[in-house]
Structures are given as C-alpha cells and as structure tokens.
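Tokens in:
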C-alpha cells in the first residue's frame, strides 16, 4: 500500500464502520479483515511504513489506535485523551505525528509523536492548530492554482 499505487479507504464518517477498501484508481476491493475499533472523524497516517488508523472515535469516545499490516490490524498504545478530528503525518524515520484535533469537545493545539510503540507529547502551538492546518491547505491550494494558471 505505501507504494503509492493504491489508496486505502476506511471508516465511514460518523458511522461505526470497521472496514477498509483498497482503491487502485478504477476499482475498489474490500479487505478481508476489520479493525477492532471504530475510528470515525479520524484519519489514516503512515507509521513505520504501514498504514495506521486514527486514534480515538467521536461516537464511541475511546482512545484506541491500530496499525494495518498484510496480516490484519494490530493495537497501538492508547492516546491519553479521547481525541478526534486530528491530522496525522508520517515521518521518514517511521514515527507519526498527531496534530491538533478535538478532545473533550475542546480544540487542541498539541503535537504528539508515536514512535517505538509510545505516544509522546511534543509541544503546544500558541494558536489553534486546526485553523493553521486549514490555512496551510488553502494556501497550498492557491499556490498550486496560480502555478497552474501561469
């Protein structure tokens, strides 16, 4: 999957889905195994060159995280908060960053790192990181748009 030739699509938004599909650009194929936990309002990120589901779930209010390999889903360490709606970024060293999100219905500005089987608090950003991420996405899209026009 990390080869870039297929997309992993999981966990219907605001549902209790535990299934995933692989999409190759033309057709999708349902994976034979399900995650142990629901992960709605989460995302997927790379952790140790394997897809990792998001941490937590809006509906079930849990702190669970899992990673997907060719043999199925494996538990990762629990996050200390009931976190959701965050961004995940896989790093070249195999670690994964968790940026922002919401915990206890409060916007979060923390950055966490999943590395070597442990979730570590890194730092708090002064500003609401959810707004910063949205601004970066919009700015990147505008730059790409103007480069396309030129």
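Residues out:
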């Amino acid at each position: 999957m990390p080869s870039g030739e297929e997309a992993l699509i999981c966990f219907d938004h605001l549902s209790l889905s535990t299934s995933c599909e692989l999409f190759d650009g033309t057709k999708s194929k349902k994976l034979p195994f399900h995650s142990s936990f629901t992960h709605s309002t989460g995302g997927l990120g790379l952790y140790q060159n394997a897809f990792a589901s998001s941490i937590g779930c809006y509906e079930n209010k849990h702190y669970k995280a899992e990673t997907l390999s060719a043999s199925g889903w494996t538990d990762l360490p629990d996050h200390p908060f009931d976190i959701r709606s965050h961004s995940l970024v896989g790093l070249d060293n195999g670690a994964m960053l968790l940026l922002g999100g919401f915990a206890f219905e409060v916007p979060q500005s923390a950055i966490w790192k999943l590395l070597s089987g442990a979730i570590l608090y890194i730092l708090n950003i002064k500003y609401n990181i959810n707004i910063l991420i949205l601004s970066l996405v919009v700015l990147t899209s505008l730059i790409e748009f103007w480069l396309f026009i030129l």
